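ok trying this again, last paste got cut off
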Amino acid sequence: MDLEYSDDQTALRDSARDVLAAESPIRFVRGVAEGTADAGDLWRTLVELGWPALLVPEATGGLGLSYVEVAIVLEEMGRVLAPGPFLPTVTQLVPALLRMDDPVSRDRLLERVLEGSLTGAQVEGDVRAERSTEPAQGWVLNGTAHNVLCGAEVTHHLVHAEGVPDSLLLLVPAEAADVTSLDALDPTRSLAQVGYADAVVPAESALAIGTETVSAVLGEVESTAAFGLAAECLGTCEQMFEMTLQYAKEREQFDRPIGSFQAVKHKLADMLVACERANALVYFAALTLAEGDERKEMAVHMAKAAVGDCQRLVMKESLQIHGGIGYTWEHDLHLFMRRVKTSEALFGNSREHKRKVAELLSL
């Protein structure tokens, strides 16, 4: 288990940072938040770069990389508050497709992911299914799910509905659902309510998941999604720290930069320590996922908990050091604050993940 970046990973980080600085500047993110820019533009750029193919095997046309590279890219995306369906597609849809039993169908769907025509997010909620009375049709869905990440942006939803055998996972076209965008705290990240009212899902939408149960596969998908969100939130926290550090160097009071005051130095030091701790745990989780290490479940819980603690401290101290300017819409800080607060709530907050760590340790 190598805890240092390889030369290729360092190059990936540097190129990702350069590309995202050019393709997702803060004015673009503000445009998405205010409804004057389209997040789909960034998604098309990421497809051209091949980033959705990070986990896809080379034999299928992908890059054949690991969760370490996924963490590197997501960390850089978090730094610029990149919008769009990349996170759920790479951490939910692709891992689920990779567990399919039929290699022909699996490769066909993965090729669509690589082309950018297939994106997806997991739907969790009270959704029920019944067999359709028409032979050519598969299932009829009813029910509702809340807070689906990028639910209004993705082309398909991963649904495990009550009444469907535990060997099948439904890949439901988004147009089959009543999708309502939610007025979320973070306007740069879409959340949606997904409802089904006698929605007909064709039989070919059912994905066979080998010898494993869908419940087990979705448990792992939830874990990779929590890991991905932790990696992205880490990048946002690091960027907030760097913004605050720069502001402390430039803002003067009593003819001195405020960063020279002892109290501010302590705050900045605490922020840095929290970011470094979260960084170590996120990349340890990435390595355990990449190597199939038996500690991966524990590592993901610890990473998400650490990032949750980190964002809480970094947000508080960033706002404190920025002072009154940090409260304004014109300053960029509030966009970062909104992102980290929603990231903390999604896929389990730090308290929930700490409880799971305690359960695994039989405490």
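PB: full thing came through this time. Residues 253 and 313 are 24 Å apart (CA to CA).
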